[in-house]
Amino acid sequence: MNITIGTTNKAKTEAVEVIARKYFDNPNFTYVKASSQVSDQPMTQEETRLGAINRSKNAIKETGAQFSFGLEGGVTEIDGVMYVCNWGALTVSDGKTYTAAGAQIILPEEIAQEIRAGKELGPVMERYTQRRDIRQGAGAVGVFTQGLVSRQMMFEHIVSLLIGQYLFTIAHD
Ligand SMILES: O=P(O)(O)OP(=O)(O)OP(=O)(O)OC[C@H]1O[C@@H](n2cnc3c(O)ncnc32)[C@H](O)[C@@H]1O
Ligand SMILES: [Mg+2]
Fold first, then answer.
1. Ligand 1: does its nearest atom lie under 6 Å from the Cβ of 142?
2. CB 7 less than 6 A from any atom of ligand 1
3. From the CB of 88, is ligand 1 less than 6 Å away?
4. 40-76 pLDDT, tens per residue?
5. Is there a contact between 11 and 67 (Cβ–Cβ < 8 Å)?
6. Ligand 1 touching residue 72 (CB < 6 A)
7. Is 84 touching ligand 1 by the criterion CB < 6 Å?
8. CA-CA distance, 68 to 97, in Å (whole number)?
9. In the chain, how long is the greatest CA-to-CA distance?
10. How many angstroms is it from 169 CA to the middle of ligand 2?
11. Whose CA is nearest to atom 7 of ligand 1?
12. What is the pLDDT of residues 67-86, one digit of tens each?
């Protein structure tokens, strides 16, 4: 079973591996830095979702795997409050693409202001926490939930939603 993941970010690759191992026999994982074809800092749900879809489609084109996962993070605003938002896509070699979204939490206003000014959350988080590579580990979600929910855990939930929808479809075909 060949499974490709459209990134090398650890929080995402570990999430796919942990969940896919539960439901697929002998999975063999490959990673490609697939293009999301959206901005580095997606600013809406629509853009973030599209980034996930593009990553999974571009990665499957490159590798010819049976299953391809694209995971994308972004931000969204509701009533002037900025939330991190996360989307995932699973493209299957038959051409079907499944999508699902994950948890959303509020970003502190001082961080939201920097994002609105055009900065990317990754470097902003590194400055805020004085730690490097947060995005591959706890992520903003881990930092602002006091470690209760890591970025990997959040992506694991999305991957479960994607694989679950695929399993539902093949069970009812
Ligand atoms: O290598 P890739 O796969 O691109 O991994 P990435 O960490 O850059 O991740 P994304 O491009 O998917 O998304 C960046 C977005 O992820 C969200 N995010 C959440 N926690 C983050 C963190 O600690 N650092 C950076 N981005 C984070 C945030 O909404 C950013 O806009
Ligand atoms: Mg990125």
1. no
2. yes
3. no
4. 999 999 999 999 999 999 999 999 999 999 999 999 9
5. no
6. yes
7. yes
8. 9
9. 51
10. 30
11. 135
12. 999 999 999 999 999 999 99
Residue 15: partners with Cβ closer than 8 Å, 6 or more residues away: 71, 152, 153, 154, 155, 156, 158, 159
Ligand 1 atom 23: residue of nearest CA: 139
Angstrom distance (rounded) from CA 140 to CA 103 = 12
Is the ipTM higher than 0.90? The answer is yes
Reported pTM: 0.96
Mean predicted confidence (pLDDT) in 117-130:
95
What is residue 67's predicted lDDT score, i.e. its pLDDT?
98
| 3 state SS of 89 | strand
The closest ligand to the CA of 72 turns out to be 1
Domain locations in the chain as residue ranges: 2-172
One-letter amino acid of 168 = F
Ligand 1 pocket, residue 134 CB under 6 Å: yes
3-class state of residue 98 by DSSP: strand
Query: Which amino acid is residue 58, in one-letter code?
Result: N
The domain made up of 2-172 has a fold known as: Maf protein (3.90.950)
Report the alpha-carbon distance of residue 53 to residue 158 in Å, rounded. Answer: 13
Tell how far the Cα of 36 is from the centroid of ligand 2, in angstroms.
8
